Amino acid sequence: MSISQVRYQDGASHDGDNNFYTLSSLEATIDQVKKSSLGHDELISIMEDLAEYLDDYPGREIIGLEGKLLRGDRSDLVERATRLKNKFARKVAKDQMSLVEQTVYIQILSAICSSWHQCIYPAIMSGQGKIEIDRLVNIEIIQPVHKAIVRYDSLITTELVSGMLYFLTGLCHVSWGIKC
User: Fold this and answer.
1) Where are the domains of the chain?
2) N or C: the chain end with fewer CB closer than 10 Å?
3) Is the pTM of this model over 0.90?
4) Predicted confidence (pLDDT) per residue in 75-110, tens digit
């Protein structure tokens, strides 16, 4: 049995250097997806679930990423956000035939949306400043999502996770202002 296969009763994993840690729920889900989805054709239905995140949010005005950031008084993010959103969109297109990758994207995009609506958006609505919002985005979304993904794909960067957030912004799944 290799080190990467060692699992303990409490759900902890071994990362190969005698450091033990408990998996977050997102990490555990990604681990389960990676193990269970290989070779299962019935997972085609995940395409429909992913499509929910790849399409514009129903009933909201289509004004593009830049317009949405400007509505949220975040002109400082437009250039970087556009570049990172496009980078993630290219990755999704490249991985569209991989059911494993699509399933992982569903979990990640869902986690980002949930964290946004539970932590970030209320802070925006309460009038928190840009520095505090950026700090919350990093602590509540970028770092935990990156930590969960990088175990399975060492090429995933925090920049790509940011691109996922901006991708969702462009499709109006998350809003940086009072109204999307």
Assistant:
1) 24-170
2) N
3) no
4) 999 999 999 999 999 998 888 767 778 778 888 999
pLDDT band at 116 (very low <50, low <70, confident <90, very high): very high
Token look-up 């949306």 returns 113
